[in-house]
Specification:
Layout lengths: L8 E5 L3 H13 L3 E5 L2 H10 L4 E5 L1 E2 L2 E2 H10 L6 E5 L4 H9 L4 E4 L4 H72 L4 H28 L8 H16 L3 E5 L9 H20 L5 E8 L3 E8 L16 H10 L3 E6 L5 E8 L3
Length: about 350
């Protein structure tokens, strides 16, 4: 049974008044809180005001067909966990309703009232297990988001330290070296050494900025993601191996740098996969925003993914999926052997 502070509430729906009373009394004797409904109309009205932990539903009501009633409650989003009550010869109908989500079924026979408490207990245990599993999944997703967020914050901190700390110090030393070269002009050998030291310092500054840029690919400005993706495209084109095109029909602003950072990393991983593994000649990177959705798409014309390779961790699909989950986006991978791969990340925008 669910671990609640009150007894589980069960709604029993049956148009046989005598059986309805017997079922209700049997369940109350087990400590359950029981409500009853003698018709489908009464059950719908009661469910509009209350939410039971379980419903015992007769498949053949005078004013409603069991499967049809279940489908109607599903459409109205008022369906609760339920067990079906069926008579002899209706086993096929019971199976169909099980496909609609019924937890169990009980036959109307001489042993029904003896079995009813066990059926209710088993169904309520399944409900509790389902709720616990859903809560565990929510907690797992929260922890994944927190872990990724901590990693992003650490990368931003290290990147800022490299750029503003070490990078600035190296720049200051390079300026001092330039000043010393003027003083060392009468000493050619010393001036040559200082010139060499200056070149090394400039190379170190470039490497430091490159590392900082890699750790923080997009800034905190709302319009930073399209700029970062455009720079990623330029970098890929500079390699000379494939042609990469970035398409962004209109201005896009993302206020949350956490979201922008993960979208950039997804695009970066997808583009790198296309370059390294797909043997693609062309890559198209698209960023499109509608009134309620932000779509990031990376498509290539490479060899595609074999089914045996589509789930390999080495391709980074798992990492991309984790990043999509962290920001509440949907990631899909479409591939046909020999026609390339299209990776789409769709993010629903909050009003």
């Amino acid at each position: 049974m669910p671990s609640t502070n009150h007894a589980p509430r069960i709604l029993v729906v049956d148009d046989d008044e005598g059986l309805l009373i017997l079922m209700a009394d049997t369940l109350r004797a087990e400590g359950y809180e029981v409500a009853t409904a003698g018709s489908g109309r009464t059950a719908r009205a009661w469910l509009g005001r209350h939410t039971p932990d379980l419903m015992m539903l007769d498949l053949k009501l005078q004013d409603a067909n069991g499967p049809a009633l279940v489908a109607e409650l599903q459409r109205e989003k008022t369906l609760v966990p339920f067990v079906v009550v069926t008579g002899q010869g209706d086993e096929k109908v019971a199976v169909e309703v099980m496909k609609q989500g019924a937890l169990d079924y009980v036959m109307k026979d001489s042993g029904m009232l003896d079995l009813l408490p066990a059926v209710a207990k088993r169904a309520l245990a399944a409900v509790a297990q389902g709720k616990a599993l859903a809560a565990a999944q929510v907690e797992r997703q929260r922890l994944e988001r927190e872990i990724l967020a901590v990693g992003e914050r650490e990368r931003h901190t290290i990147g800022a330290d490299l750029h503003d700390g070490l990078g600035q110090q190296l720049t200051a030393i390079e300026l001092m070296c330039t000043a010393l070269k003027e003083d060392a002009a009468p000493y050619p050998a010393l001036a040559k050494r200082l010139d060499y030291v200056g070149r090394m310092l400039r190379e170190a500054i470039v490497q430091t900025r490159f590392l900082a840029r890699g750790l923080v690919p997009v800034g905190s400005d709302p319009g930073a993601l399209p700029v970062g993706l455009a720079e990623l495209t330029e970098h890929i084109n500079a390699l000379g191996r494939v042609r990469c095109e970035f398409q962004c029909p209109g201005p896009i602003a993302i206020a949350d740098p956490f979201v922008a950072g993960h979208l950039y990393r997804i695009a970066q991983e997808a583009v790198n996969n296309a370059v390294k593994h797909a043997r693609a000649r062309n890559i198209v990177l698209r960023l499109v925003q509608t009134s309620d959705t932000l779509l990031l798409e990376v498509a290539d014309d490479g060899v595609g993914l074999a089914k045996t390779r589509a789930s390999r961790a080495g391709l980074g699909l798992g990492v991309m999926q984790h990043r999509a989950n962290a920001i509440g986006a949907q990631l899909t991978v479409a591939s046909r052997r020999g026609t390339g791969v299209t990776i789409r990340c769709s993010l629903a925008l909050k009003p």
